[in-house]
Each structure stands twice: as structure tokens, then as C-alpha cells.
């Protein structure tokens, strides 16, 4: 069985904060975030997934997660999701 390692980006529906993480069970992990089981995301419930990437190699996923958490990675993410963020501002 092929196992994928997912790097995901969540956005808080409460204040628009972004959270970047990594998991092998994406749907389960989102439920955990929304149940308040993660200390760093609990104050900003609820969360929605706005982007994810899947990797066959765990080290590749970990490297991508670290990169997206940097200022350069954050800028890339905002360029990749430019239309999404533009539409959110219009509403």
C-alpha cells in the first residue's frame, strides 16, 4: 500500500490565521484541529484546509513544511493562492 505524507495549510475561520502542518491522515488531522486537540490551533477554531500537497517520501514532506513556514515560503504560498486570498478580501 502506498502511503502519502501530506503538507497542509489551514485557515482559521475565526480570524484568518494560517497554520502549516504535516500528517499521513489529512481528514483525521483536520478533525483533531477542529476538536481543539492541538494546543497551538485551539484558540482559533474552526479551521478549514485551503491547500495541501502530498509526498511519497517523508523527508521531502518535512522539508516542504519547514520551507513553507519561512518568510520566503509564506510569500510563495500567498502567490500560489493569490486568487483565493483576493476573493476572501472581496467578501
Task: Please describe what this structure looks like.
The chain has 91 residues and is of the alpha+beta class. It has a single domain, classed as GIY-YIG endonuclease, CATH 3.40.1440. Helices cover 43% and strands 25% of the residues. It has four helices and three strands. Strands 2-1-3 form a three-stranded antiparallel sheet. Strand 1 and strand 2 form a beta hairpin. It is globular and about 40 Å long. The chain starts with a strand and ends with a helix. The model has no long low-confidence stretch (mean pLDDT 96).
Short description:
With 91 residues, the chain is of the alpha+beta class. Helices cover 43% and strands 25% of the residues.
Q: What's the topology here?
A:
Layout lengths: L4 E8 L5 E6 L2 H9 L12 E9 L2 H11 L2 H10 L1 H9 L1
Antiparallel strand pairs: 1-2, 1-3
Amino acid at each position: 500500500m502506498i502511503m502519502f505524507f501530506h503538507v497542509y495549510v489551514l485557515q482559521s475561520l475565526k480570524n484568518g490565521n494560517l497554520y502549516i502542518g504535516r500528517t499521513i491522515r489529512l481528514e483525521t488531522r483536520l478533525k483533531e484541529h477542529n476538536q481543539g486537540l492541538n494546543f497551538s490551533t485551539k484558540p482559533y477554531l474552526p479551521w478549514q484546509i485551503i491547500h495541501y500537497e502530498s509526498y511519497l517520501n517523508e523527508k521531502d514532506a518535512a522539508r516542504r513544511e519547514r520551507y513553507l513556514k519561512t518568510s520566503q515560503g509564506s510569500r510563495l504560498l500567498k502567490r500560489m493562492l493569490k486568487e483565493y486570498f483576493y476573493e476572501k478580501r472581496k467578501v
